[in-house]
Amino acid sequence: MIIQYTNGEAIEGLLLARTEKTIRVATPGEDEVLEFTCVNGTWVSEDCEPVRIEFAWQRKSRRPVVTEADCICRPELAARLIHLLWSGEEECGFGVSGVAALALDAAPWQRVV
């Protein structure tokens, strides 16, 4: 979790305990456990300073942008995969290592996703 103080200081902490109105947080290099209380929807430190708390599950993760080049594969692999799709076959004759070899043999700009 990240604890953001009003002066701009931000520290990372580890949630130790949480109730509806209080949380206890351990921070690196500190012996004392920090405690915050929720007052009218705002987390407040023991010194009555409002803080913003961002829990790990609230962080937005950045997903890599997929480009058209990331989706291009060798024509042989594409043809074989399309054949498998239409034929309903479960095994492709190449075996897993054969398909992987086709994928790995692609030019750097022709990565198989």
Identify the overall geometry.
elongated
Strand order of the largest sheet: 2-1-7-6-5-4-3
Contiguous uncertain segments of 5+ residues: 95-99, 106-113
Helix segment tally: 2
What's the number of structural domains? 2
Please describe the biggest sheet, giving its number of strands, its sense, and whether it closes into a barrel: 7 strands, antiparallel
Order of helices and strands: EEEEEEEHH
Radius of gyration: 26 Å
Question: What class, by secondary structure content?
Answer: alpha+beta
Distance between the terminal alpha carbons, to the nearest Å? 33 Å
Percent helix range: 10-25%
Notes on the structure:
- This protein is α+β, with helices and mostly antiparallel strands.
- The chain has two domains: about 1-60, no CATH class; about 70-105, no CATH class.
- Helices cover about 20% and strands about 25% of the residues.
- The chain is built from two helices and seven strands.
- It has a seven-stranded antiparallel β-sheet with strand order 2-1-7-6-5-4-3, with no helix packed on it.
- A hairpin with a 7-residue loop joins strand 4 and strand 5.
- The protein is elongated and about 70 Å long.
- About 5% of the residues are buried.
- The model is unreliable at about 95-100 and about 105-113 (pLDDT under 50).
